[in-house]
């Protein structure tokens, strides 16, 4: 289990919870939870690394994305509006190393049950 540090949520922005849970699931490599949150035609652009199209390729990308065991996940900010959102976070790995992340999301619709359709991830090793 990783240590998750996140700002308090007022509870009236359901997509904030979706993005929080998705980011935690990704850090924990919880494939089932991650796949449940994305649409079948999901696109993930890991800027400078690779672009993933579709759920089948997404599964492989999730397994390889972080490469090391996460010790702590700091969710610095989660912003949503309409069918878009963004998460600013810091990942501290067991042993050593840190990743600064900004992930920009597009949902498949505006409703509470909309799936994540597109992710653009800007990840920097520090």
TrEMBL record:
Gene3D superfamilies: 3.10.450.50. Coiled coil: none annotated. InterPro entries: NTF2-like_dom_sf (IPR032710), SnoaL-like (IPR037401). It comes from the Bacteria. Residues 20-112 form the SnoaL-like domain. It holds the Pfam family SnoaL_2. This is SnoaL-like protein.
